[in-house]
Amino acid sequence: MPLQTDLKPLSFYRLGPTKEKELFKRYRDTYYGVVVPAHIASYYYKFCSEFVGSLGKPYFIDPMTYIFANDPRQLKRFVKDKDSGRTKRDSWGQKKKGEVKRSYSKLVELEYSGVIKDAVDNDRPLVPSDLSDNMELMEFVQKIVEFQKTRLAAIPDKYRKYAKYAKKADKPFKASGNLPVLLVAPYFPTTTLHPRGWHATNLRLVEHAKGMADGLPVFAVILADTQVLAEDAKQIAQDYSKAGADGFLLWPDGFSGYEEPAALRVVFNAVSEFGRDGKPVILMYGGAFSLVLTYAGLTGFACGICYGEKKLSTQEMDVEGAIPPRYYIRRLKKKVVIETELRRIRLGHYPDLVCNCDVCRRKPDPATQDDIESRQHFMLVRAAEIEDLRQGLTQTDFASALDEAFRQHRNDALLPSVGHLRNWAALL
Amino acid sequence: MPKEISALTFKREVDMYQPLLKLFSRFGITVAEVPFFGKRIDLLFGTPSLSSLYAVETKLHDWRSAFKQAALNQLAAQRSYVAVPSKLAARLAEEEKDQFRRYDVGLIAVALRAKILVPPKKNGCFSLRHHHVIKNTLKKAKNPKAKRIGAIADAIADRSQTLIFLQTWAD
Fold first, then answer.
1. Contact between chains at A343 and B68 (C-beta distance less than 8 A)
2. Are the CB atoms for A57 and A300 separated by under 8 Å?
């Protein structure tokens, strides 16, 4: 199914390792599609293919190739003490790393192999010169494109028996041919436009991916920090258009919508630049600021369900400890930690911040919501915010609403800081 | 307050710790950078049994964010303070005293010495459950040998460590 670019903004949720299957299914009307990271698609392929197959929603696979150009330690998991379960530390007090994480190991061994396996086996990052040979580059692209086209396209045999039940219930059931909505060309971080840097290689990767796509749209990932985007967004956009990219997945490295106005402006302008020729632009990791970016032409954005709205490409993959459950306050466009902030703030004292979604009507004191409920609330509220935009909320009205919320709460003693609302309003 | 004291400027929040340690020297246990639901309490003073905990949030300029954190600390500590340089503290005591009183947050002025300008009350938000979370965190600390503030100031400033037990100030 083609990308429905007339439904701006499209919201994608990223499939994470947590138990989110029920949320995805139960609230399937609150989002547009699903992003499946390649290592998860590979390691849990039976689950993932059954999941995206039964969901019947557009999906695409993030090939995660950038990770192989980083410090190889990033691919490795922490070593745990068998008795205490705690992470072991070296004599400097640093956490000890062990083997390559199993999900990546499987991706490298069984799916990507070639130059990536060579780099991982030698415990070194992949460098542009590894792909200087055209044959090797083509083989590399071929494997990654094929993986995306086939890995989740057919559901495992053992699930085919459910076809008759789906038919009885008049529900769609695709045993094969469940192709991704788009293909993502292999990508690496753009830190410079120097011919020997990753940018030139990225362009070749897109060109070759385009030739192997069998008619599926090929999107280029622009992984660059705001400094590179500020200086070179125009050139990068032109280069990728020449390379034949059908759309862009923009990943401003480590950026969040709560940054200073200058950084917000850079990303706003970059979205505008990449979308200049009418090509779709999707933010790879985006939060509420993506709603503002819709007015710059953003087609859609992806994030986890109530997490993962920004990402630094070099951040540690093996995260220890769970994220404390957070509650999204729609008017403030910000999340607060339920266990502490929400218990202290007492949201009921702020009538304009009280939510009337189904979950909050059932549990009026959000401080009593658990992790699942707060995520359900997030999905419902985000869908309502998107619906407002789709229904034609004007730029001026949106800016006024942000500014009004800022003025009302800027000096509140307990609420989180709301300076971002003023910054966002100023952009519109 | 003498002029030379009130004019003292601090470069880092950790530079304000020594006067604060002295102010709370009656407590048996002093811990910096205490993890608390994804955030950290700058300084926590406790009795040896940990039944009584006082939290201090330090800031050089942005007192509002320190206030918000101090308000959260009230969940786990019986008393919670904001500590800022004396010049800023004097202004806050004059202009924002009501807010500190309304939310039972204390205000400390820090110069060569630290002085409580607004004493906090025992707050109504204190939760035994949160208190126990902090107590358990402190009890589980692996290496509770108290260090001199001078030796560990850089680690506190760059936030590279958590649960740093500090030597209580002694003349």
1. no
2. no
Q: Does B155 touch chain A (CB under 8 A)?
A: no
What is the rounded average pLDDT of the residues A31-60?
A: 93
Q: Which residues in chain B have their CB less than 8 angstroms from residue A339's CB? A: 37, 130
Which chain B residue is nearest to residue A325, measuring alpha carbons?
B37
Say which residues have a Cβ less than 8 Å from residue A333's Cβ, sequence separation at least 6: A257, A288, A289, A291, A402, A420, A421, A424
Q: With an 8 Å Cβ cutoff, are A344 and B37 in contact?
A: no
Angle (CA) B76-B78-B80 rounded to 5° is 85
ipTM value of the model?
0.80
> Would the CB atoms of A413 and B71 count as touching at under 8 Å?
yes
CATH of the domain at B86: 3.40.1350
C-alpha distance from B4 to closest chain A C-alpha (Å): 32
Find the domain containing B39 and state its range. 3-166
Q: May I ask the CATH class of domain A10-72+104-303?
A: alpha beta
Question: Tokens in use for A252?
Answer: 């401003």
Query: What is the tens place of the pLDDT at every residue in B120-151?
Result: 987 788 999 999 999 988 887 766 778 788 77
DSSP element (H, E) containing A229? helix A226-243
- The answer to whether B67 faces chain A, any CB pair under 8 Å, is yes
* Residue A111 token pair: 């799916």
Structure tokens at A423: 């910054």
Contact by Cβ (8 Å): A49, A151: yes
- Please confirm whether the linkage preceding A9 is cis (ω < 30° from 0): yes
Is position B171 within any domain? no
Is A135 an interface residue toward B (CB < 8 Å)?
no
Q: Does B74 touch chain A (CB under 8 A)?
A: yes
Q: What is the dihedral of CA A99, A101, A104, A105, to 10 degrees?
A: 40
Tell me, yes or no, whether B114 lies in a domain: yes
What's the angle, vertex CA B36, arms to CA B33 and CA B39, rounded to 5? 70
pLDDT digit string (tens) for A352-392? Answer: 999 999 999 999 999 999 999 999 999 999 999 999 999 99
Shortest distance, CA A64 to any CA of chain B (angstroms): 27
Give this prediction's pTM.
Answer: 0.89
Residue of chain A whose Cα is closest to the Cα of B127:
A343
* B21 within a domain of the structure (yes/no): yes
Interchain proximity A413–B99, CB inside 8 Å: yes
The answer to whether A414 contacts chain B (CB < 8 Å) is: yes
Is residue B106 in some structural domain? yes
> Domain map of chain A by residue range?
10-72+104-303, 326-427
